[in-house]
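Lecture notes, continued. The same structure-token format from the folding unit now serves as the input rather than the output. Read the line below as a description of shape only.
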């Protein structure tokens, strides 16, 4: 009752800080829309009640209309959602269903950035005298409406009202409120707000952002002593090495401003040592190298310049470092000086420098590295055959040194450069046999066998791969066994080849080699599970029984996800369309359960029940990795469904059908791209479920005639899936129907895909995949094909 009074009181008090145009000022008494005055789906006002369009929603009940609207809302199809909510609201006025539809209709205006309509609808909504979760969220959207209009004071008041209800996402609202206070010049209030959030229990990354904002505010207020205290707290929080390094470099002026030059220097040196390649590191060195108070070590200055390719500056710094170096430091400084000379193109001086480093270092680690660097310089100077022999001699002289395998790998590359492919293949096979436990050597060993296979030496290739399979385990051995089977088939040993393929399917049924083995054996396995089948209580019970076989009985103190504050925040943030922040909170919950099988199971199940497919997938994946053997293929059905979910089913089926893409393939693509997180953003800037790059999205929008496209639209599932389906279908056509070729184009670019195929139709998908020289793209192609196979075998697709 108290909160309801506060709600109505604030509605009156906001008159004093009425929002700017286009949002109208609040009246002292906010009228609830009558049946004769309702918001239409596009945000206009209707003078009389409108009945739902029977042609759009034939004989649909209010509950069905609401469900339809929520499904379209989840898909990001806000126009269709608004139509359904409008129909549900008119079909059930004065009922809980009608009220919920009214809320979501108002929200649809906000999600379509029709902020004036959103403000009007939500303002009316909170004035109806009802207090519930929807009312609380309505205040958040009112605040957002003010924020978007630039009405900072009104936004501050509305965010404060939202927080007064003590919702789980209150700290995030306080962050937004602080930003509005800052815009008003109320920096003390803003700083205090940021500090409250920074010291709260929300996700670590969000706290760090609050700390940085608080430090900026305190600096603007001239309160460097308070900023320094906050900086110390932030550094204690920061864990990622590169992030911590950036903070140390950028915040070092704070202790210096308080007269603590020693701490400033300590921070700078640590930051530069941790991440010399940061732009902030280069800027700091350029700014401070002549500062007598800081006096950065010249060796460290050289390291920064080396990381940024400033070789002349690095050379000068190394000379300065050498002037004061002792005997233990001198050899490596000489080696680095020679490297700088090499980068400047002075090979003669570089070779002399390496000789000096070797003479100073002897058989020490620096001396061995200098020898290897010298051989590389010989090769770069054009003496390729001398370099090849040098690498071989190096590996013979120091066979147990960890750099010896790399030396042999470089020898093989130089043989390739000379056009001697047979000798390069033998060099790689020799490398593999010498160091069978090293991934670098295993890859070289396999590549040597592939050369033999391609050149028609299939018997020898089979022998090489069988030897590799016997010497290794896991995915390396599986790959070698698959290719040994291919070689057996190529030599006419059909029975042995087919038997080997059958064994691969048994050993690793969800792997890429198993998917390809089924294709070679013409085994078209299809699933029987309907896409919309719920996970039954018996299915969940089977997971619990499986857990008991290896994790023991469930402990009595397994945390309930429903009571976890991080989970509560995640659900509330998702409801407010703050999906990045929501995923950060889900990540907190996952990390807290990282090594607890039963806690992971409960969290995955809870996330599934609440529509968080990406979180359920992550929890299930971690759970399977904890299980003996880590084999997802033998996991219970419910767990496999969490690992290979089918969220956004209507969207994926419709868009796959629109562009003639197999929906099972489309689900595999989306799983690989985003793990079904609609808010996913890659390091390169790809966005949404299908991870479409903004520039690519612009081109697709033009091709499809999508008007008003904005980059943020890529986070809308329906649009993202549509664009992804369009693009992959285009690549399938361009690559003459090859799924492997299309996937290579999707991930690595169409030009590269054509290069890997030689500009010809792909006849052998296995050879094509192995010839992809981008490690990420090669693994991507294989991973999607493997997942496609799992989806086909798990679900029933006929008739879709």
């Amino acid at each position: 009752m108290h909160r309801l009074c506060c709600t109505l009181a604030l509605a009156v008090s906001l008159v004093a800080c009425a929002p700017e145009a286009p949002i109208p000022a609040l009246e002292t008494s906010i009228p609830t829309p009558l049946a004769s005055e309702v918001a239409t789906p596009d945000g206009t006002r209707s003078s009389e009640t409108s009945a739902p369009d029977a042609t759009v929603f034939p004989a649909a009940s209010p509950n069905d209309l609401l469900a339809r609207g929520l499904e379209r809302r989840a898909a990001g199809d806000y126009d269709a959602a608004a139509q359904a909510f409008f129909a549900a609201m008119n079909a059930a006025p004065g009922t809980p269903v009608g009220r919920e539809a009214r809320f979501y209709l108002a929200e649809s205006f906000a999600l379509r950035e029709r902020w004036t309509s959103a403000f009007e609808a939500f303002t009316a909504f909170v004035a109806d005298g009802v207090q519930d979760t929807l009312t609380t969220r309505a205040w958040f959207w009112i605040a957002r409406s003010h924020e978007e209009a630039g009405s900072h004071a009104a936004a501050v008041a509305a965010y404060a009202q939202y927080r007064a209800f003590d919702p789980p996402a209150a700290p995030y609202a306080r962050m937004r409120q602080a930003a509005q206070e800052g815009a008003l010049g109320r920096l003390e209030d803003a700083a205090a707000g940021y500090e409250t959030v920074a010291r709260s229990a929300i996700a670590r990354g969000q706290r760090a952002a609050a700390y940085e904002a608080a430090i900026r505010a305190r600096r603007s207020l001239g309160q460097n002593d308070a900023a320094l205290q906050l900086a110390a707290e932030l550094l204690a929080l920061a864990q990622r090495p590169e992030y911590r390094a950036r903070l140390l470099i950028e915040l070092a002026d704070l202790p210096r401003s308080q007269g603590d030059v020693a701490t400033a220097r300590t921070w700078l040196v640590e930051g530069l040592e941790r991440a010399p390649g940061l732009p902030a590191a280069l800027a700091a060195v350029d700014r401070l190298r002549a500062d007598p108070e800081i006096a950065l070590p010249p060796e460290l200055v050289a390291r920064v310049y080396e990381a940024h390719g400033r070789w002349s500056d690095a050379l000068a710094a190394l000379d300065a470092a050498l002037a004061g170096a002792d005997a233990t430091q001198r050899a490596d400084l000489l080696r680095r000086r020679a490297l700088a000379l090499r980068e400047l193109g002075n090979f003669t001086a570089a070779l002399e420098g390496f000789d000096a480093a070797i003479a100073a270092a002897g058989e020490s680690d620096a001396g061995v590295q200098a020898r290897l660097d010298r051989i590389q310089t010989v090769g770069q100077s054009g003496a390729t055959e001398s370099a090849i022999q040098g690498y071989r001699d190096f590996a013979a002289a120091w066979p147990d040194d960890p750099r010896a395998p790399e030396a042999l790998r470089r020898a093989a590359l130089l043989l390739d450069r000379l056009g001697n492919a047979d000798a390069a293949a033998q060099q790689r096979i020799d490398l593999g046999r010498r160091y069978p436990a090293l991934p670098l050597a295993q890859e070289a060993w396999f590549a040597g066998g592939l050369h033999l296979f391609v050149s028609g030496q299939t018997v020898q290739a089979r022998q090489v791969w069988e030897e590799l399979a016997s010497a290794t385990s896991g995915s390396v051995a599986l790959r070698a066994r698959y290719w040994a089977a291919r070689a057996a088939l190529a030599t006419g040993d059909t029975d042995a080849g087919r038997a080997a393929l059958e064994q691969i399917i048994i050993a690793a049924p969800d792997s890429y080699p198993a998917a390809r083995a089924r294709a070679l054996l013409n085994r078209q396995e299809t699933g029987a599970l309907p896409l919309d089948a719920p996970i039954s209580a018996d299915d969940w019970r089977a997971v619990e029984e499986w857990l008991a076989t290896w994790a023991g009985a469930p402990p009595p103190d397994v945390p309930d996800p429903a009571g976890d504050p991080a989970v509560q925040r995640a659900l509330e943030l998702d409801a407010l369309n703050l999906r990045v922040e929501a995923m950060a909170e889900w990540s907190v919950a996952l990390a807290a359960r990282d090594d607890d099988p039963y806690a992971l199971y409960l969290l995955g199940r809870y996330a599934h029940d609440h529509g968080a497919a990406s979180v359920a997938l992550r929890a299930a994946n971690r759970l399977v990795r904890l299980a003996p053997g880590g084999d997802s293929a033998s996991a219970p059905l419910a767990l496999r469904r969490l690992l290979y979910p089918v969220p956004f089913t209507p969207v994926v089926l419709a868009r796959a059908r629109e562009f003639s893409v197999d929906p099972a393939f489309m689900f595999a693509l989306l799983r690989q791209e985003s793990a079904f997180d609609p808010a996913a953003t890659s390091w390169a800037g790809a966005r949404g479920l299908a991870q479409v790059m903004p520039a690519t999205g612009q081109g697709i929008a033009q091709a499809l005639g999508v008007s008003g496209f904005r980059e943020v639209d890529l986070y809308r599932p329906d649009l993202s899936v549509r664009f992804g389906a369009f693009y992959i279908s285009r690549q399938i056509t361009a690559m003459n129907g090859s799924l492997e070729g299309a996937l290579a184009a999707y991930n690595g670019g169409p030009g590269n895909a054509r290069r890997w195929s030689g500009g010809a139709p792909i006849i052998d998908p296995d050879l094509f995949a192995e010839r992809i020289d981008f490690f990420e793209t090669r693994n991507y192609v294989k991973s999607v094909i493997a997942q496609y196979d799992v989806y086909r075998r798990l679900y029933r697709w006929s008739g879709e």
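Point for the exam: The longest strand covers residues 38-39.
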